[in-house]
Specification:
With 321 residues, this protein is mostly helical. The protein has 14 helices and no strands. Helices cover 77% and strands 0% of the residues. The chain is globular, with a radius of gyration of 19 Å.
Length: 321
């Protein structure tokens, strides 16, 4: 078998790994939150993952980003990890992990909106507007009963849904900025991602400190295993697999992970944590997926070479979870 065929076969395995790994991170976050406060959980996770990647880059003789790039790195770390991942972690205190994954799937809606306001972005067209209306109608169906109840539990759930939307907006803004400004010639993609992880991790750790979360931090066997899984396999492993898949497979195929992750997350939430998933939730999820499909239908996509160089690689850091 030729080297090219081997690479393509490995790329398919990498894509499958991305689908499985990133589909499990929502469950991992939910379990970790049993004893680890949200801001510190995200902060420690990304600081540790970023440190490991940075050490790897240094050991391999890679090029680290110069100080002139640090401002951009911190901005992306704030948008994509501080808001993006942080919003998901905060929300999962009250929103079931599977449902959180479904709501995160609305990120393409916000990306379309962000692009519409960019001078060189794709403007909204009837197809995209239709997809936005369909998708957000699913969100309305999901939250409507809680809007009318007004109980403490309902307010917490609504706060979680709002946090997930903030996460999607942060991720979309970060992705748009990342795509336009690039990572800089000669700078290792893994190095850029390591620095973004460190930036986001430090900011989240500072936030947790200011919120007094250290006094509530303790580890159990269950949360320790979950945290280590999120940091190593979920963070570093998912990134490496995603980057490899992007280099050797069409972006249109690789991007399908966004549809598979929520299905895995919902199934794991029901099986492992016995989370509820009612017909109303299922109907809302169906509308969200239909809306996303309409928005993304026949969308022009970036070439594999352009995306693999990127900036968007840090977005790998995570589909917000």
């Amino acid at each position: 078998m030729t080297s090219s065929a081997n690479q393509r076969r490995l790329a398919y395995f990498a894509w499958i790994a991305v689908c499985l790994i990133w589909g499990t991170t929502y469950l991992g976050i939910r379990v970790s939150l049993e004893s680890i406060p949200p801001a510190l959980m995200g902060g420690m996770r990304w600081t540790l993952a970023g440190s490991v990647l940075a050490l790897y880059v240094i050991a391999k003789g890679g090029t680290l980003p110069p100080p002139s790039r640090w401002g951009q790195i911190f901005m992306l770390g704030f948008l994509m990890l501080g808001l993006g991942n942080g919003g998901v972690v905060f929300a999962e205190q009250w929103v079931p992990s599977g449902l959180a994954a479904v709501i995160v799937a609305t990120a393409p809606f916000w990306m379309a909106a962000v692009e519409a306001f960019m001078p060189d972005g794709e403007k909204l067209c009837p197809r995209v507007i239709t997809g936005l209306v369909v998708g957000f109608s699913g969100i309305v169906i999901l939250v409507w009963p809680d809007l009318s109840l007004g109980t403490a539990g309902s307010r917490a759930f609504l706060a979680g849904i709002a946090s997930l939307q903030i996460a999607a907006i942060g991720w979309s803004l970060g992705s748009a900025r990342s795509k336009r400004y690039g990572s800089g010639a000669g700078i290792d993609v893994i190095a850029m991602t390591a620095y973004q992880m460190l930036a986001g991790g430090i900011m989240m750790t500072v936030a947790g400190t200011l919120l007094g979360e250290w006094s509530h931090l303790h580890f159990t066997t269950r949360t320790t295993v979950s945290f280590l899984y999120l940091t190593t396999i979920g963070g570093i492993g998912g990134f490496v697999a995603y980057t490899y898949a992007l280099r050797h497979l069409p972006v249109s195929l690789v991007s399908l992970y966004a549809y598979i992750n929520p299905i895995i997350a919902v199934a794991l939430g029901i099986i492992v944590l016995h989370e509820p998933f009612t017909w109303r939730m299922a109907s809302a999820a169906a509308l969200v997926f239909v809306g996303v499909a309409i928005v993304r239908w026949q969308q022009p996509s970036l070439s594999v070479s352009r995306v693999s160089k990127v900036p968007d690689a840090p977005s790998v850091v995570r589909r917000t979870a």
